[in-house]
């Protein structure tokens, strides 16, 4: 059985609209594909440990897998593609979260889980260390980007992923409006 690992964004959860749409698509059209979408830990180090543990288990079981991620999840999906040699789809990805999240230092509340926590400089440093600075995996990545993203500057993603497959749309927003139209194409790209 092949697996799709879906990574949600900052202060999000498996209950996000895109995660739910992808899971529903797989249940209806591709029940042969296992869907894994963990509730990621709030700290980057713990989140990466969770992701790496899942990936290592899939590698150990010799199960084919691909990864998709949105926003901060796209940043982490790029790391998965680079580390494990798999294909990745990144949706309105955060390219430099160590810059972006500096504006969010301090107390945070995840609106899905109601978990409160502190975002610290140490967390920013871990994100800096997790960044793939010179990626060799761009031939295995598909960027889905909407120019109307109100949270992230889409031009950063276009520059960073310039050697990847790119789908850029005018309008939209950070949630990536119309994501459900891409579910089948995502599975085909991931070769699952």
From TrEMBL:
Entry-linked InterPro entries: AB_hydrolase_fold, UPF0227/Esterase_YqiA
Q: What is this protein called?
A: Esterase YqiA
Q: Which residues form a coiled coil?
A: none
Domain of life of the native organism: Bacteria
Lineage, please?
Bacteria, Pseudomonadati, Pseudomonadota, Gammaproteobacteria, Aeromonadales
The species this protein belongs to is Oceanisphaera avium
Q: Which PANTHER family match?
A: ESTERASE YQIA (PTHR35602:SF3), ESTERASE YQIA-RELATED (PTHR35602)
């Amino acid at each position: 059985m092949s697996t799709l690992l879906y990574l949600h964004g900052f202060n999000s959860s498996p209950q996000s609209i895109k995660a739910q749409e992808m899971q529903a698509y797989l249940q209806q059209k591709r029940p042969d594909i296992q869907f894994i979408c963990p509730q990621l830990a709030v700290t980057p180090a713990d989140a990466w440990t969770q992701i790496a543990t899942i990936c290592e288990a899939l590698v150990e079981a010799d199960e084919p897998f691909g990864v998709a991620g949105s926003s901060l999840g796209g940043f982490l999906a790029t790391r998965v593609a680079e580390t494990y040699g798999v294909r990745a789809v990144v949706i309105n990805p955060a390219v430099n979260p160590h810059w972006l999240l500096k504006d969010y230092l301090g107390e945070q509340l995840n609106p899905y889980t109601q978990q409160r926590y502190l975002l610290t400089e140490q967390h920013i440093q871990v994100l800096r260390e997790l960044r793939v600075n010179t990626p060799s995996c761009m031939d295995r990545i598909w960027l889905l980007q909407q120019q109307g993203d109100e949270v992230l500057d889409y031009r950063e993603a276009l520059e960073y992923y310039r050697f990847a497959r790119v789908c850029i749309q005018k309008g939209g927003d950070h949630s990536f409006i119309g994501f459900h139209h891409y579910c089948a194409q995502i599975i085909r790209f991931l070769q699952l």
